Amino acid sequence: MLEIKHVSKSYGHILAVDDVSLSVQPGEIYGLLGLNGAGKTTTFRMIMNLFSADQGDILLEGEPIGYPQMDRIGFLSEDRSLMTKMTVKEQMIFYGRLKGMDKKSAVDAMRYWLDRFNIKEYETRKIKELSKGNQQKIQFITAIMHQPDLLILDEPFNGLDPINVELFIDVIREF
Fold first, then answer.
1. 61-113 pLDDT, tens digit each
2. Residue boundaries of the structural domains of the chain
3. Cα 123 to chain center, whole Å?
4. Which architecture does CATH list for 79-150+158-175?
5. 29, 33, 67, 142: most buried by Cβ count inside 10 Å?
């Protein structure tokens, strides 16, 4: 499914990613572990085609990752990428539409996942009114609501208590 072949990335004289190769098959959970600054986030951003690799290839189903594959990938960034003045519903519809969902499908998926994460009462609340942990839940839902083939999670448990970490783990395993 995902192949990374001899990928490297530098920022000036700093080598951030050095000749990384890996393969992830459908159904596999694969983790990148390393110290801060080891290149994990840079690798994720190259997979998402946000950064270009200086050398090497990144392929999804044998094809170079580009715009056409983006609807098949869900991405949870380590940074909050939520629009804080929007309501949860507006946010979910917006992200769902970006991933090719029609409005009804996005709303249906949103309601399912809000219920699953025990936050259905937040549908009409603004993102800025939510706790950090509940914002993380919303961001996670936006990454999975379109049922992606590949799910990339950069520090998914950031801001979560142990009970919600377990809930995230359960959902990740189901995927």
1. 999 998 888 889 999 888 877 999 999 999 999 999 999 999 999 999 999 99
2. 1-65, 79-150+158-175
3. 21
4. 3-Layer(aba) Sandwich (3.40)
5. 142
